[in-house]
Amino acid sequence: MDSDRTAPLWDEALRRLRAESAVSVGFGGAVEGTTVRIRHLAGARTELLRGLPIMAGRGLGGRAWREVRTLGVDDYRSATDISHHYDRPVAAEGLRAVVAAPVVAAGTVRGVLYAGVREAIHHGDRLLDAVTRSSRWLAGELAVEAEVERRTAVRTARLQRLEAAAGEQLRLAHAGLRELYGTVADPEVKRRLGDLLETLTPGTPDAPVLSRRELDVLTQVATGATYGEVAARLGLTASTVKSYMRDVLVRLDAHSRHEAVVVARRRGLIP
């Protein structure tokens, strides 16, 4: 389906086409799965063309798509070298001569651009050339847009990886600070560490209150540590760690370690 980004390009291609040629109606659309869906109209008197699904090989546009070349007929109704699956919407527009050109970007047909004239024409080459130029212009713009989207996706993925890595480092640092906090005897150092920990995890207004030890255990669990590893880091027994974790699950209304970590992060209790 046409994206919001590419729709203006199709509309501009139709505007250009009608501005430089004697086109009564310009229309077209992108390849959507197994069809070309007509979504863009300029100069149409009816809405019968809008949303029309064009199958490869059917009608003039379907042939242009399948054969990957610009095709035209001087009289659509009497043409013998195309199928007539779409006669009704074409007739409703009163079109005589029709030209269709595939929009080919990066070696792939991205859609089909049409031009229709309501009067009889005797020299259709100019119309063929105009539609071909417009389709090539559109193909170039679509290729640029696709490259922009590709680069944006690559950049977004890279930023997400960096953010995930930074978040993991922050969680490990936070866990280390909480572990250190429990071993510090100096009151001033302990106070400053406590202030730093509160800065890292200010909590939301609706966050439940967890004890220091419950936060210690939850913070270590959030790093992926097993109960045995948490016990070793905090100088506790595994059974004590499990007991604290059961209390955490109740306070956070969680049913698993993973859910508890998710809820705690959402409420600002851990980074």
Keywords:
2 domains, Arc Repressor Mutant, subunit A, alpha+beta, Beta-Lactamase, 9 helices
Task: Kindly describe this structure.
- By secondary structure, the protein is an alpha+beta fold.
- The protein folds into two domains: 7-152, 2-Layer Sandwich (Beta-Lactamase); 165-266, Orthogonal Bundle (Arc Repressor Mutant, subunit A), CATH 1.10.10.10.
- The protein has helices at 7-20, 59-67, 87-92, 125-181, 187-200, 212-222, 227-234, 238-251, 257-266; strands at 25-32, 35-37, 40-42, 53-55, 71-73, 97-105, 108-117.
- Strands 1, 2, 3, 4, 5, 6 and 7 form a seven-stranded antiparallel sheet that branches.
- β6 (97-105) and β7 form a beta hairpin.
- α1 runs antiparallel to α4.
- The chain is rod-shaped, with a radius of gyration of 33 Å.
- GO terms for molecular function: DNA binding.
- Residues 203-268 form the HTH luxR-type domain.
- Keywords: DNA-binding, Transcription, Transcription regulation.
- This is DNA-binding response regulator.
- InterPro entries: GAF-like_dom_sf, Sig_transdc_resp-reg_C-effctor, Tscrpt_reg_LuxR_C, WH-like_DNA-bd_sf.
Number of helices: 9
CATH topology of the largest domain: Beta-Lactamase
Any guess at the CATH architecture of the largest domain? 2-Layer Sandwich
Tell me the fraction of residues in β-strands, as a range. Answer: 5-15%
Count of extended strands: 7
CATH class of the largest domain: Alpha Beta
* Major sheet size, sense and barrel closure: 7 strands, antiparallel
**Tally of domains:** 2
The helix-and-strand class reads alpha+beta
What name goes with the CATH superfamily of the largest domain?
GAF domain
User: From N to C, what is the helix and strand string?
Assistant: HEEEEHEHEEHHHHHH
Q: Which descriptor suits the 3D outline?
A: rod-shaped
Q: List the uncertain runs.
A: none
What do the pLDDT scores average to? Answer: 89
Radius of gyration: 33 Å
- Fraction in helix: 40-55%
Q: Give the N-terminus to C-terminus distance in angstroms.
A: 40 Å
